[in-house]
Amino acid sequence: MKPIEDIKPLLETPKKVVITMHQKPDADAMGSSLAMYHYLRQKGHEITVISPTNFPDFLKWMPGADLVVDFESSQDKAMSALEAVDLLFCLDFNALYRTKALAPYLEQLKSIRILIDHHLEPQPGFDYGVSDTAASSTAQLVYETLYKLGEEQYITDEIAQCIYAGAMTDTGSFRFASTSARVHRMVADLLDRGLKHELIHQAIYDNFLENRLRFIGHSLLHRMEVFYEYNTAMMAIPYTDLKRFDLQTGDTEGLVNFLLSIQGIKMAALIIDRREEVKLSFRSKGNFDVNTFARKYFEGGGHFNAAGGRSTDGLERTVQRFIKAMEENEDLLQ
Ligand code: 5GP
Ligand code: MN
């Protein structure tokens, strides 16, 4: 993979560009993609941003979110963009399967592939890119890419908002170990450029409906289990809860972090029956590596302290498998 700054000559003439991200995009996937969109648009390219699936309502304020094509509901529009694409940007994911139903189409493309990502162990096959697992967020890498290209004068307020949103959420509002001085330097630069950061916090964290809070209360009361001898807390959410509380995409985001706030807990697992599959989210504090854990037991991956996986065994069996995996890791969890 050639370094990302080597794309500069490619951007000198108008190109047909597709920017895509992982399924059920979070603020980092969406923010980094839209930041890249706003930059490339100023450079005169023709761009389609494709999300493999729908995305949470709390991201709809992002400048450009209304232009994002949802592959599941607008397949024709996405396909016609893909048919003509010169440059494919893959943002905030390390393996094509993370784009779900879009993956087989991406695999066939003959276009130039560009990766900007911070997940561990990216799959091969990208022509240009940056894969930096020390980066707080993909949004930070987009920001740094603009500097590497010598194009930082294109950082508009729209771009600053998108980048800040991605870095803020992926660092747990600037508290995780990934929140390096590098992150704060970037944020200082964005503030110098006039960014209004408090509006972004409000748009993302103070914008839910009552049902989500009631669901969180119900889950903490009835669905949480703590295994003190393994320093692990788990929450298993049946599909019926998702229906009962009328949860929408994104409503379970952040729930896993509550588990990690219990004294002494090193690993937290949120296991959700999404019916088509069971989705697992893992978080850890300190030296327990949930990336390895998710890879080994649940066909997943991610980062050292935040990872995810999936299972097709149904909720009950998946929970049993999780408990067994936790027991196997007893030593590492001490
Ligand atoms: P979350 O638990 O918030 O869905 O994901 C936590 C982190 O793990 C994110 O960086 C996400 O991209 C990654 N992740 C989540 N699910 C999977 C998965 O199934 N496979 C891989 N490789 N990474 C995942
Ligand atoms: Mn990310």
Automatic annotation (TrEMBL):
Ranges where the DDH domain occurs: 16-166
One of the record's GO molecular function terms: nucleic acid binding
Superkingdom of this protein's organism: Bacteria
InterPro entries to which the protein is assigned, alphabetical: DDH_dom, DHH_sf, DHHA1_dom, Oligoribo/pAp-PDE_c-di-AMP_PDE
A Pfam entry, by short name: DHH
Domain (DHHA1) ranges: 244-328
Protein name: Bifunctional oligoribonuclease/PAP phosphatase NrnA
Native organism taxonomy: Bacteria, Pseudomonadati, Bacteroidota, Chitinophagia, Chitinophagales
